[in-house]
Amino acid sequence: MAAPSRPRRSVLFMPGANTRALNKARELPADGLIFDLEDAVAPDVKVSAREAVTAAVAQGGYGKRELVLRVNGLDTEWGAEDLRAASAMRLDAVLLPKVESAERVRGTVSALDMAGAPPDMVIWCMIETPTGVLAAAEIAAAHPRVAALVMGTSDLTKDLQARHMPNRVPLLTSLQLVLLAARAHGLTALDGVHLDLADEAGFASACEQGRALGFDGKTLIHPTQIAPANAAFRPGADEIDEARKIIAAHEAALATGNGIVVVDGRLVENLHVEAAQRVVALARVLEA
């Protein structure tokens, strides 16, 4: 899989009804912002929240941050209007909650097309139910607009009747299945949120685990989580140096007609070079 064209180390959920938070988000160092009209918004203020987000996006000032709108489901009284509003906003993506089938994705694409959404507006899918996890591969392949799979670990834990554990062992199978589906179809994969804001060590551990599994970044619920997530999912200086060494050594080997080379006692082949190129490409994106 190629390196992402933009970083998604930290993607922060912002309650759509909180105007003060929408304004503050313009100054936060998150790679992406998810304006939330679903779980974070009470039913009686969903319409006003939609209006507040529309006004905030129109005002602009969010810089290079990736802007995403989490809409309500099409099976709710707000979903269709959320999609119509999203189609007219300067957004990068629409995030669908509780996606459990390819049909759900295609229905959303049809609604966006009918509303005149720009062709480069992509769809992110939240995978947060057992059915969604088992259908992750077909969801990932549902339509070219699908660009990311996002873990909804809180709802998934509830539906699995699992326990919240520091090592997230009850969720590992689900995390890996969704990650497999994303990678098989060239999509971004984002890890779920960490709810305990006082548990800094636990959050750092979850970020490290998510990166070790292969996720591109983590969804967040509070600005204090941005810096640790950015640090965890950013290639370190040693990692970048090693990647550049691998690329240079392999290029030198190719120049002499060899397809493999030994770097610091380790055999390097094309697969290692591809991984190194992703690291260097991401580093360049972050530097820019």
Q: What can you see in these coordinates?
A:
This protein is of the alpha/beta class. The protein has 2 domains: 10-232, TIM Barrel; 237-287, no CATH class. It is built from 12 helices and 10 strands. It has helices spanning 19-24, 46-59, 79-88, 102-114, 130-134, 136-140, 153-160, 172-184, 200-213, 226-232, 237-255, 270-287; strands at residues 10-15, 32-36, 66-70, 93-96, 122-127, 146-151, 188-191, 217-220, 261-263, 266-268. The protein has an 8-stranded parallel barrel. Strands 9-10 form a two-stranded antiparallel sheet. Helix 3 (79-88) packs across helix 4 (102-114) and helix 11 (237-255) packs across helix 12. It is globular and about 65 Å long. The two termini are 21 Å apart. The model has no long low-confidence stretch (mean pLDDT 93).
Number of helices: 12
If you average the pLDDT, what whole number results? 93
State the name of the first-level CATH class of the largest domain. Answer: Alpha Beta
**Can you tell me the CATH architecture of the largest domain?**
Alpha-Beta Barrel
Strand element count: 10
Strand content: 15-25%
- CATH homologous superfamily classification of the largest domain: Phosphoenolpyruvate-binding domains
Largest β sheet strand count, sense and barrel closure:
8 strands, parallel, barrel
Shape: globular
